[in-house]
Design brief:
By secondary structure, this protein is an alpha+beta fold. It is built from five helices and 19 strands.
Length: about 300
């Protein structure tokens, strides 16, 4: 849960958010550090779940059902399941809207209007939301935001993506915003309506607006029950809990993707409308949040 004497940043997020305004910041910081170094009774379980091969197969059937946006799913790595995500907009109306966290994740839950911060995602950042938004998962490489009224829409941040084409990791693509934007622009399974320079929260890069081209040749197995194109994948298993994600775009959806150069890699900021016909409305809701993001140096 921690490295050396430094508390897990997700522990920081959980405690400071839960007691915000109820205690001085200095006291909350002391509570975070004290909790991190003392042995705790079983409570929040953030470590990967140990699964047998049979149990893992059963779990995959359960969680890889058609999802709406970010979904925590197990992945067998080294005999254990890692915390991961499939970021897609396939429809599933049953996504909880009570602010409950995804399985094996910590989160900020239902968000009060105003400014919030996360040090779980790297780099840490602040952001501002109006009424009616929630965060259901926060990892070093994944942070999701959803409008409670339309949880099928998605706004998320993702780290260090590997680009996919026709279901396979593409080789020879430099980990820069220019190279990744050019790769997306050249993907024949996509329609790219916009590709321009952009800056978010102090990081510069490119912004693209993308949708699936009619008759796209590849349907990703990461979207059971619907047709989609797998755009990016990333995995981080050098720390516990590990994380991974697949970023997909289904037929009928439309997304605004910021590909940003950070000091230690790439950061994606993605705003996605489940129904592409509502893209303008979805972006009108998400864009002020995107523009409020400020990354830590």
């Amino acid at each position: 849960m921690m490295t050396g004497s430094q508390p897990d940043p997700r522990l920081h997020d959980a405690i400071t958010h839960r007691f915000a305004g109820q205690a001085p910041d200095r006291l909350l910081e002391r509570i975070v550090r004290r909790t991190a170094v003392e042995r705790q009774r079983p409570g929040w379980h953030w470590s990967p779940l140990a699964l047998t091969a049979a149990a893992l197969a059963t779990a995959m059937v359960v969680v890889l059902v058609s999802v709406a946006g970010l979904q925590i799913a197990p992945s067998q790595r080294g005999g254990a399941a890692s915390a991961g995500a499939i970021a897609t907009a396939a429809s599933r109306p049953s996504i909880p809207t009570d602010g409950s966290c995804e399985t094996d994740a910590v989160c900020l839950g239902l968000l009060s209007p105003g400014q919030h911060a996360s040090r779980a995602f790297s780099p840490g950042f602040t952001f501002t939301v109006p009424f009616g938004w929630m965060n259901r998962a926060a990892f070093g490489g994944i942070f999701d935001l959803r409008p409670v009224g339309r949880p099928g829409d998605l706004m998320g941040l993702y780290r260090n993506p590997d680009p996919f084409q026709a279901g396979r990791i593409a080789t020879g693509v430099a980990p820069t915003s220019e190279a990744l934007a050019a790769f997306l622009d050249g993907d024949t399974d996509l329609v790219v309506a916009v590709n321009r320079a952009a800056e978010i929260g102090g990081l510069r890069g490119r912004m693209l607006e993308v949708s699936v081209r009619p008759g796209a040749s590849y349907a990703s197995p990461q979207c059971p029950g619907t047709r989609c194109v797998l755009l990016f994948h990333a995995v981080q298993d050098t720390v516990i809990p590990s994380w991974f994600y697949y970023l997909t775009l289904p037929d009928g959806a439309r997304a605004r993707i910021y590909v940003l150069d950070a000091p230690d890699g790439i950061v994606l900021v993605v705003a996605q409308a489940l129904d592409g016909q509502r893209f303008a409305d979805a972006m009108a809701a998400a864009q002020p949040i995107v523009e409020s993001i400020r990354f830590e140096p």
